[in-house]
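subagent[fold] <- orchestrator: predict structure for attached chain, return tokens only, no commentary.
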Amino acid sequence: MTTRLPANVDASQIPEMRKAFAKNFKAARIKAGLRQVDICEKAGMSQPYLSEVERGLSNISLDNMEILAALVDKPLWVLLKP
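subagent[fold] -> orchestrator:
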């Protein structure tokens, strides 16, 4: 089950690990010169879902986190660092 927070959620309501992954993944994606659409095509994810992940609004499975980490050539633990 995917847990999704409303778009107008207060940042204090987003779990810290979710915020860390969101921020670190987005930064790694941009540094790698990849657009959301590039990631979505390779990962088989929808762009709206990836956008929610990057804003910390959607919960993401460990399996999907590993896929995204591989696409930006980072170990998952790096993307989970606060």
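orchestrator: received. Logging for downstream: The domain at 14-79 is CATH 1.10.260.40 (434 Repressor (Amino-terminal Domain)). The mean pLDDT is 91.
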